[in-house]
Please model this.
Amino acid sequence: MKKGILVGLCCSLIVFFFLAMAWGAQNEVKVSPSVVFPEPGFEFDAVFEGIDVMHDFVIQNKGTATLDVKKVSGG
Model:
């Protein structure tokens, strides 16, 4: 009789342990950056040679971690 109670208690603890692990994994917050370009491209109008032109490109981070921009190039 005591053996059955001990086995039942051990099984209950094991089930509880696995349920607690599964619940914790589901509530885990993923930490990663997520880049968003509201304006993915831009074309300049025709300009005379030697004239400087500028345009600000917006880069947004919709993620939960820091977004590091390491390199930018024009096309």
Observations:
- Residues 2-44+53-61 form one domain.
- The radius of gyration is 28 Å.
- The beta strands are 35-36, 60-61.
- The CA atoms of residues 21 and 27 lie 10 Å apart.
